[in-house]
């Protein structure tokens, strides 16, 4: 009887060993499991800038090169009051190139005519919207030197560039802004101080309508006057 029990125990142990061996043989190697579960995560690639961050040291060289490849000289300003078409002057190439550059970046879209003085000027290209400040920061901080000896005068309909608000004895131009002379008699007292770089070729009636809107004593319109879009035209 004892011999029979001993034989049964040996049989059971052998079966357990066989099950264990069979189970182990079915499991993949530990190294295989680890290998299959490792996921390599690559860092997202930061898109390269198409242009440098502009500043007073590199802006002029940048626009000198930009002028060679970008010869467009007509733009369309779409407002809630209608369309204004502008021709930019090739003689003032830095200011023309700057305006084309900003137009292609979409900078002017959703800016405003933020200063209007009836029988004088309407001035645009700025806004209190944080998105516009972010656009400027991304483009860079720079000023353009005046280019006032090309024979242009501040007739009605010309497009000129205001100087910066900082202490600025040399009348360096604020590159993000512009004004259109609306006065029927021109604004010739501005000659020599501000760079004329274009003229309105269509839509002076729109300029007049914008100039007639109500504004406070500083010329800030009572209601926002948006520049919905600025685009290149043929």
Question: How much of the polypeptide forms β-strand, as a percent range?
Answer: 15-25%
Order of strands side by side in the largest beta sheet? 1-2-7-5-6-4-3-8
Structural class: alpha+beta
Termini, distance in Å? 110 Å
CATH secondary-structure class: Mainly Beta
This entry's quaternary arrangement is: single chain
CATH homologous superfamily? Cyclophilin-like
Provide a brief overview of the structure.
Helix content is 32%, strand content 21%. The chain has helices spanning 2-26, 30-37, 59-69, 93-105, 130-139, 204-211, and strands at residues 74-79, 82-88, 111-117, 121-126, 158-161, 178-181, 195-202, 226-232. Helix 3 (59-69) crosses helix 4 (93-105).
Overview features:
234 residues; alpha+beta; Cyclophilin; eight-stranded antiparallel β-barrel; 6 helices; 21% strand; globular; disordered N terminus
Structure description:
With 234 residues, the chain is α+β, with helices and mostly antiparallel strands. It has one domain (59-232): Cyclophilin-like (Cyclophilin, Beta Barrel), CATH 2.40.100. It has six helices and eight strands, in the order αααββαββαβββαβ. The chain has helices at 2-26, 30-37, 59-69, 93-105, 130-139, 204-211, and strands at 74-79, 82-88, 111-117, 121-126, 158-161, 178-181, 195-202, 226-232. It has an eight-stranded antiparallel barrel with strand order 1-2-7-5-6-4-3-8. Helix 3 packs across helix 4. It is globular. The termini are far apart.
């Amino acid at each position: 009887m004892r011999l029979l029990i001993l034989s049964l125990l040996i049989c059971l142990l052998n079966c357990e060993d066989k099950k264990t061996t069979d189970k182990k043989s079915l499991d993949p190697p530990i190294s295989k499991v680890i290998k299959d579960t490792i996921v390599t995560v690559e860092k997202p690639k930061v898109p390269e800038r198409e242009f440098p961050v502009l500043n007073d040291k590199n802006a002029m060289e940048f626009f000198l090169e930009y002028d060679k490849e970008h010869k467009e000289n007509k733009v369309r300003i779409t407002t809630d009051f209608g369309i204004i078409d502008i021709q930019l002057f090739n003689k003032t190439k830095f200011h023309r190139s700057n305006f084309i550059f900003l137009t292609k970046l979409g900078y002017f879209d959703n800016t405003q005519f933020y200063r209007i003085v009836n029988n004088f000027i309407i001035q645009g290209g700025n806004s209190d919207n944080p998105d516009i400040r972010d656009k400027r920061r991304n483009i860079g901080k720079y000023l353009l030197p005046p280019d006032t000896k090309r024979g242009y005068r501040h007739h009605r309909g010309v497009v000129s560039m205001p100087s910066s608000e900082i202490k600025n004895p040399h009348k360096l131009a604020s590159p993000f802004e512009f004004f259109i002379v609306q006065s029927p008699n021109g604004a010739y007292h501005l000659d020599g101080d501000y760079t004329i770089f274009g003229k309105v070729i269509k839509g002076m009636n729109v300029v007049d309508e914008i100039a007639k809107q109500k504004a406070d004593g500083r010329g800030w319109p009572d209601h926002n006057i948006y520049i919905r879009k600025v685009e290149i035209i043929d």
